[in-house]
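Open question from group meeting: does this chain pack into something compact, or does most of it stay loose? Before anyone orders reagents, we agreed to write out a predicted structure and look at it together. Recording both the input and the output here so the notebook holds the full record.
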Amino acid sequence: MVVSTQYPYSLYQYQILASSQDATGDFVSNGAEWVLMAKCRDETTSAQRMPTVDDGMAYIPDAVVYCEASCEVINVGSKVQVRNPDGSVRLSGTCRGFSKDTFHSRLWV
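Structure tokens returned:
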């Protein structure tokens, strides 16, 4: 029996953590980290055009990433990675567009 998984990979977003103040009142950077956003699957594209994004340009993406509908919105310009179950990076790039749909969310890289 073959078990099919709709979303076999994991989508991560690089997030800069909020700064905090030390005892002297100076702001201290808390760094940045890769944060798990959702389970996903990716598909490479050939010449599929993406909808026009905020800057008015229509890009030809390298891949479309389909995520669970519960995925939080990922802003255009954010660094993202799709990782295999073993943690190895399968796709890395910059978010070119994000769409939250009824049954899933889409991310163009």
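Observations to bring back to the group:
Strands lie at 9-16, 20-21, 27-28, 32-44, 63-68, 79-83, 89-94, 97-100, 104-108.
The two ends are 34 Å apart (CA to CA).
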